[in-house]
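Chain entry —
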Amino acid sequence: MTSFGLIKTKIEKKLSDSYQNETFKPEFSRFKKLVLENKKISKVLFLYNELINNKNLSESNAKEFVTECINSHKSINLKQSDLNLLENWLKNTTCKNKYSDIDTIFSNDVLKLVEKVESKNRIVEGLKQSPPETLKSQINLPIKSMVQIANKTFAKHIESLTEGEKKELMGVLTISDDELKDSFNKLKEDTIQKLNLLNQKESDSEIKSKVDETIFKIQNENVDRLNYFKLKKLNETI
């Protein structure tokens, strides 16, 4: 299968070049359709972005984080057929793969054991590093900026999460649509029930009004992974 690291590098170059060539709008539309709206590809892109960031983790946490990413990548089960349209869009873009270490740790090639260990060690070292203060808002450009344009709420929410919450979010991103829908509906019902009980015990009219607004919002919430994650965190605080 084609290296996703090379694909990610090509995407970054193509979108970056589109600024200079004044073709950003049509290229970004293709990017949104082929990447952001493709559940498998967007999940894999998220994992790559997470692994290239300096996170100031301890060595044990960094190793565990890499293991969790590898397991999440396996569960996505990305196939060559999922990449054909994307590769066709990128076929005239040439560049050197900037993410070969991540490709290696995600590879199923049993003959690359030494390379996997070396790549994992390099990634772990990167995760242990603290991002320079002046660069914290610039990590993963231009891909990250593209995702922010497409979904500012999602990107902003991810930035505010702790490392533990990001790991939890990765688990949400990799569950099936059917499992998501079932879990979301159960969580919605449980959360609304908790809020109703809270409302019954509350005497302050302003608080009761805010609780009612929250219940109404939850009742009309669309089923998606970010809403599920946010609802789960709300449920845990009630």
Q: What stands out?
A: The two ends are 46 Å apart (CA to CA). DSSP finds 13 helices and no strands in the chain. The longest helix spans residues 177-201. Residues 134-142, 145-153 have pLDDT under 50 and may be disordered.
